[in-house]
Fold these 2 entries.
Entry 1:
Amino acid sequence: MRSKINFYLIEYALNALLREKYKSFFIMSIFTLLTFLLTSVFFITNSIKYELQSTVDTLPQIIVQKIKAGRHYDIDESVVDDVLDIAGVDDAVARVWGYYYFENAGVNFSIVGIDAYEKQYKKSFENIIEDFDFATLEQTPSMVVGRGVKEIMKQSYYDEYFNFIKPDGSLKRVDVAGVFDGQTQLESNDMIVMPKETLKEIFGMDEMQATDIVVKVKNPQEVSTVAAKIKLIYPDTRIITTQDLQISYQNIFDYKSGIFLALFVIAIFTFFIIIYDKASGLSSEEKREIGILKAIGWKIDDILKEKFYEAFILSLFAYLLGVILALLYVYLFQAPILRDIFVGYSQLKTSFELPFIFDLHTLFLVFFLSVPVYVAAIIIPSWKIATLEADEVIR
Amino acid sequence: MILTPEVLAIFILNTIFAFFATIAFVLSVKIFLHWNIKSVSQSQYKLEKQSYLSATIIKYIFAIKVPLFLFFIFTLDKISKVITGAMCGAGVVDATPYGTYLLILKVINLYVFAYWLMLNSVDMKNEEQPYTKLKFGIYIIAFFLLMGELVLEGVMFNSIDIDKMVSCCGTIYSSTASSYISNIFSIDTGMLLFLFYGTYVLIMLFALLKNKYLFSIANLFFIIISIIAIIVFFGTYIYQLPTHHCPFCFLQKDYYYVGYLIYIFLFLGTFYGVIVAFIDAKKEQMQRDTKISLVFNTLLVLLLSAYPLIYYIKNGVWL
């Protein structure tokens, strides 16, 4: 612990690794592959988490849903007025939105209804209202669609308009007025925006009802108090705050990478056994080497130390290589194949760039999962080698 | 139950520790019972070889445990974002009845293992190997401490309930709280600072007098008094907030991770200080240990004192 690093020993260890080219190369490639896989998975989850987190930040602070028979139900718009009376509430807006299943392509569109003259709860909607004239959109029923939706519709030869099937079976023709880009790809790819009136007709909703109500609170620290007050006035509602969402996102992704890690445990113990086996098997060449070292006066401690230097150099190098490869794979090539595990297989899969998030924590995590395991695997084999008898080996 | 990748990683390493620690334990018991350096028998020869294996294993465990301890604190901070109410590690530690004991046990284990390594290095330098029996005896105790820690860690992470509300550090380390921690706030600040700087001066004095026992005791006292002083007095200046006393929050990014520096200084300074009384090392080594202890203790005192002083220079008032 006290002794200084012996550079001659490091040089010797490096040379020893190079002497055993094939063995070192074999171990190194497996090790690199393992760290590479692990790091990639963590990088991908980090990036997606960041992307979702920034989506959550743009979401309303409180969402009020009506619950009937344990299920989400349309809420009366009059609730908005009561919510606005609560002290600290800046704004409350009734939202109309939902999913429309387009059978032909087997995809779900998310449709959002907005009014041109009310205050928008999302910045991106304000941009849409600026770009498109909603007053005219209301007169001839039309909509603004996301890029992905546009493509899917085109495949079914819906270029200028789209026929929605209403709950009563009749058709509702809505024109496509334009295409928009959202701030984050994740939310806007499968989205359609249209006037509230049109949407209520498509979904067959009552005039005075809305899907849910979003509430804006001036002071973010009062969010939980306001949420509690709404719950008190309307016990039949479910109140969701951004904090709840953030925590559940964190949990989902911890869970996903946790499952991956649980599988990885098997891989790493297999690796442990392979290394143990490789390190135990000594060629006659190596045996002679140990014998000569001992004969010229190396102590058991010295040989052990040299073996650990070897292991440490090898594992550190493989670790760094794995991390660098993962960086390239995830951020340069956008992690083909692997990221599908986390994003899902929907037809209207959102195409998004993984943002570059450099998290030191992840690097430590991968380090602890790789280097100590390798070093642990060579403890006993190294000790066996180091305690060989010089005379037995050389003979 | 909480199973983030970080917790899983800690569990995996704990499994490896448990496996190797048990091997070392079995060997240590054998060595402790049958060691006889004067004997030339086959069995003694075998024991000598085995002593290398256990020493290597213990070195390995310690070498991983030190960075892992920092990683553990880091993990607590991360989990605190998931648990309702917790804002830093303190909330997570307080979330289960085991947290506090686990943390204390972890710190004790760090000291014990570091002591073992010192003993080992002194022992190996001496041809007679006078401490072999002693060091493996100590390891037998350390093994149970280690296993206790591993089990407690498993139990703690298992019993964390994500949906349960926990206390924030603001309430745990508050003078109005009714917990046992709040008792320390009844100590007069002036008195506490006198004790803190007084102990530091005593450490210097005993180092000059070359009385290693008093030096060691003063260092032992310094650990406790420093932690209390950090909670009661210095913490408030790090946060620049007279009501915030948490000893965990300054481990976070907002305070430039200064907590890690503080605790590392505290550990190194007091460890080398306490150790001189426990090991009959050669004179040069003792002087070196004393010097290291003094350097790190001084760094700690300077670092901690800098916060109130800079605050006073900037604002012209004390908190």
Entry 2:
Amino acid sequence: MIFKKFNIENKKARDLIPQAITVLALLSVIIYFATNAQINMGNRGISFGFGFLNQEASFDITFSMIEYDGSHSYGRAFLVGLLNTILVSVIGIFFATIIGVVVGVSRLSDNYLIAKVAEWYVEIFRNIPLILQIFFWYFAALRALPLPENGISFNDISFLTIKGWYVPKFIWTNFNIFLLSVIAAFIAIYFINSYATKQREQFGKQLPATSISLATLILIPLITFLFLGVSLTFEYPVLKQLSSTVYTYEGGVSIIPELIALALALSMYTATFIAENVRAGILGVGKGQKEAAASIGLNKNQILKLVVMPQALRIIIPPTTNQYLNLTKNSSLAAAIAYPDIVLVFAGTALMQTGRAIEIISITMLTYLTLSISISMFMNWYNKKMAIKEK
Amino acid sequence: MIKSIKTWIFVGFASLLLVACGQGGGGAGSKKSKTLDNTKKAGFVKCGVSQGLPGFSNADASGNWSGIDVDVCRAVAAAVLGDADKVKYTPLSAKERFTALTSGEIDVLARNTTWTLSRDADIGLTFVGVNFYDGQGFMVRKNSGINSVNDFKNGISACTNTGTTTELNMRDFFNSKNISYEPIAFEKADEVVQAYDAGRCDTYTTDKSGLAAQRTKMSNPDEHKVLPETISKEPLGPVVRQGDAVWEDIVRWSLNTMIEAEEYGVNSSNASSLKDSENPAIKRLVGSEGELGAAFGLDNEWSLRIIEQVGNYGESYKKHIADTGILPNRGPNQLWTKGGILYVPPAR
């Protein structure tokens, strides 16, 4: 009786058995790889384990967003690299999106010059390999900057030099209160906007929601400055002489040229693809939509903002998600110009100093996988939010 | 549906087969040497070298490698295959070198590599000797007014190679002096040189021999100088995989033969005429006495071939390091009999 259940005629079993076999085959391949690696490593006297993560790293890193020096562990060095990867990715995604949208819209401009410039930009930057663009920015453009003593000065508070861009440092008192006030402002803005929407939908009243939101965002934090003891001072970079011809800047924050070059290259390159997505999205909205919007008296900006963009976004978001993922993964080219990202710090220096190739490479791969999946999940959520809501 | 599953199963088995084939290399060391057998079968020695360090391993315009590290590979090829030119060179970055060796891509690593405890003990490598005693130093611009490491001040930026002992020594040094510094670590030596040359960093630190060699690559070598202090011990030497004792001995004694030959005054031009020498040590070196080669499964003229085709250590040093102007003075890399620390166990 029981065999009847697994009869090949039985549809459920027919669907299940091949899948089970596939999973088993896949598992056995993985297990085989693992044991094979283990045996070979054993033969060559290489030990396996993750204990090294707690050992002292004993190498320094140029640039870190958290407190780090060589006396911290390899685990901490991993975190420094990961944060640096995230930093350059976030900066890259931010600027790539802005440049991409501007260029994409410009390509459709009625102004011949603007449209052509945008077209040339796209054609040049998307057709040169990214690594060459990184080299260009780092070894050609930024290397042409002056030495610190002749640094390009911006009003004497910020200096651009071959050693990096020195900017003033913010020194806060009662930063927590300020942060809370910003959060409070955003919550207030949320309620203002939902109230405005309700007013519009129910009574057809147009409230100046944008202006009110902006005012809230400025006013609430301003109150903390005036009455709640929040204050902000700046520490400016000052030129310091180290020896007769060696100078550097002291104080302020130094943005290293490696970060600038990498962020520039990543955002300029990825922006071209985003621009094309934006153009495709806008062109993908039916002509009738624009004509209908124009016929009810909306002006050009309103048509773009209220009618075209909401529909175009549905076309733009999925391929742009791919570009965000590409940018994040491309940031691993950082190693070529000594930007201390996770590949240089962890899969580079740490791997070299410990010799734990398998452990470190798998951790690094898992990290990129996690990063990419997080970006995808966020973008999928956003995509769903922007999708057509059938009523 | 069924068809796609068949494909999957096929792919699975195919990968299994591939893995099984790939397992050939390495293996536990028995009396016979797998690496030696494979080398003889292939007809060349697989040797890992640097990506270009004058004096140690550097390729000329037509792709011919030369240098004292290259000479170690050539010596092994002369001993094992009878021809010093039968070497396949693989240029490796500091980061790649050990993985290339442990994975079997190369069989000898002669790439100005520092012998340290953790490298020797922890990651499946064996250092077979020292072919250059070095130490880490600093290079600065001559006009910088920095004349010693004591002139370094907080905020100095230092360029170096990533994945090297240099990176670690640098930290130890600046920490002990209580100087805060900006470390910039590149993957390729050429990038470090370029960054330092352009002014991205104030000092360039690596092994002193490396500094001397890289200085020749600067746009204006005379503008730079190496500070007198040495901040670390850097014994550089060839490395082999752990687990093949015979191969390890071949590489070790190929290097030792070159040094011992210099000690006894045997060189590439007089070696064959010394077969009837009075001195038994010389006779063993040129293969006319004893059966030393048999210990590693080689013939008795292995050491003669090394001396004839590659030369002794002194010849190699003079040709690659002294005559090229990198380090004319041999310093510690002089024989123990002449005030240096080159001292190898006797070949007998």
